[in-house]
Amino acid sequence: MTQNSASHRRGFICGSALRGQPDHSNLQDATFLGATKTAPSDRLHSIKDGWHPGIYAVESGGISIPGKLYELTADQDAPLVSTEPPHMYPADVTLETGDTAIAMLYPKALIDEHQWPDISHYGGWAAYKVAQ
Residue 46's pLDDT is what? Predict the structure, then answer.
C-alpha cells in the first residue's frame, strides 16, 4: 500500500540524497522512517560516469536496491524533486514489504542509448561510490 496524501508522501531514497552523499541536505528535515530495500524488481546504473544513479523497474532479472524511507511534506518534496538531474521522474517502487513509495526513476531507453554501466552487483549507490 502507498501511504501518500496530498500533504505528505513516503519517499524512497537510494542515491545522492542518502546520508553521507552530497545531496543529503536536500532532504531538509524530512522524517526518517527507516532503512529498506525495493522488491527484487529493479536495476541500478551509473549515469554519466558516476554523476548520479539511475534505477528502473524490470519484469525479470531485477535486484533489491537498498535505500532509506522518508516521510516528506509537500514543502520538503518540491525542492528535493527540483534538484534532481534531467530526465528523472517520480514513480512508485515496490518495497520488500510489499508497500510502495515514490522514488526518482530514470528512463531505461536513455540508459540503453548511452550504454551507461549496470552497477546493480555493487549492492547500492553508496557501495558503488565507496568502490570508486
Answer: 95
DSSP codes joined into one string, 24-66: GGGGTTPEEEEEEEB-S-EEEEEETTTTEEEEEE-SSS-BPPE
C-alpha cell at 100: 510502495
The structural domains of the chain, with segments of one domain joined by +, span 8-121
The CATH architecture to which 8-121 belongs is Roll (3.10)
User: What is the torsional sign of CA 70, 74, 79, 81?
Assistant: positive
| Distance in angstroms between the alpha carbons of the first and the last residue of the chain | 36
Average pLDDT over residues 22-34: 78
pTM for the model: 0.84
